[in-house]
Amino acid sequence: MWETEGPSALDRLNGIFALAVLDSVTGELFLARDPLGVKPLVYAEAGGEVWFASELRALLAIPVQEHFSVQARQSARIPR
Question: What is the distance between the alpha carbons of residues 28 and 68, in angstroms, rounded to a whole number?
Fold first, then answer.
Protein backbone atom coordinates (compact mmCIF):
# COMPACT_ATOMS: atom_id res chain seq x y z
CA MET A 1 0.00 0.00 0.00
CA TRP A 2 2.72 2.50 0.94
CA GLU A 3 4.82 1.76 -2.15
CA THR A 4 1.98 2.68 -4.50
CA GLU A 5 0.20 5.42 -2.54
CA GLY A 6 2.84 7.00 -0.32
CA PRO A 7 1.58 9.31 2.44
CA SER A 8 -1.93 9.39 0.96
CA ALA A 9 -2.25 5.76 2.12
CA LEU A 10 -2.80 7.16 5.61
CA ASP A 11 -6.27 8.30 4.51
CA ARG A 12 -7.28 4.65 4.22
CA LEU A 13 -6.21 3.69 7.74
CA ASN A 14 -8.78 3.45 10.51
CA GLY A 15 -8.11 3.19 14.21
CA ILE A 16 -5.35 4.09 16.59
CA PHE A 17 -1.82 3.96 15.20
CA ALA A 18 1.64 5.43 15.19
CA LEU A 19 3.97 4.27 12.46
CA ALA A 20 7.30 4.80 10.80
CA VAL A 21 8.21 4.09 7.19
CA LEU A 22 11.82 4.24 6.02
CA ASP A 23 12.39 4.51 2.28
CA SER A 24 15.52 2.44 1.76
CA VAL A 25 16.18 4.09 -1.62
CA THR A 26 15.91 7.78 -0.65
CA GLY A 27 16.67 7.41 3.06
CA GLU A 28 13.54 9.39 3.91
CA LEU A 29 11.88 8.57 7.23
CA PHE A 30 8.14 9.23 7.47
CA LEU A 31 6.49 9.28 10.90
CA ALA A 32 2.73 9.53 11.40
CA ARG A 33 0.04 8.97 13.99
CA ASP A 34 -3.72 8.62 13.92
CA PRO A 35 -5.64 11.83 13.08
CA LEU A 36 -7.11 12.15 16.57
CA GLY A 37 -3.69 11.83 18.17
CA VAL A 38 -4.75 8.98 20.43
CA LYS A 39 -1.49 7.07 19.96
CA PRO A 40 1.37 9.39 20.94
CA LEU A 41 4.39 9.80 18.70
CA VAL A 42 7.47 11.57 19.97
CA TYR A 43 10.84 11.92 18.31
CA ALA A 44 14.22 13.38 18.98
CA GLU A 45 17.06 14.42 16.68
CA ALA A 46 20.71 14.85 17.56
CA GLY A 47 23.98 14.47 15.73
CA GLY A 48 22.34 13.21 12.55
CA GLU A 49 20.42 10.48 14.37
CA VAL A 50 16.69 10.18 14.95
CA TRP A 51 14.95 8.31 17.76
CA PHE A 52 11.19 7.84 17.98
CA ALA A 53 8.78 6.16 20.37
CA SER A 54 5.19 6.16 21.51
CA GLU A 55 6.17 7.24 25.02
CA LEU A 56 8.39 10.11 26.12
CA ARG A 57 10.02 8.02 28.82
CA ALA A 58 11.55 5.77 26.14
CA LEU A 59 13.40 8.77 24.70
CA LEU A 60 14.40 10.01 28.12
CA ALA A 61 16.17 6.67 28.68
CA ILE A 62 18.65 7.42 25.87
CA PRO A 63 22.04 8.29 27.42
CA VAL A 64 22.69 11.26 25.10
CA GLN A 65 19.37 12.93 25.82
CA GLU A 66 20.96 16.18 27.01
CA HIS A 67 21.98 16.84 23.40
CA PHE A 68 18.59 16.64 21.72
CA SER A 69 15.25 18.35 21.72
CA VAL A 70 12.12 16.22 21.81
CA GLN A 71 9.25 16.94 19.44
CA ALA A 72 5.69 15.68 19.28
CA ARG A 73 3.84 16.18 16.02
CA GLN A 74 0.94 14.81 14.04
CA SER A 75 3.35 13.79 11.29
CA ALA A 76 6.83 14.68 10.20
CA ARG A 77 9.14 14.12 7.26
CA ILE A 78 12.68 13.81 8.47
CA PRO A 79 15.34 13.66 5.74
CA ARG A 80 18.18 11.31 6.50
Answer: 20
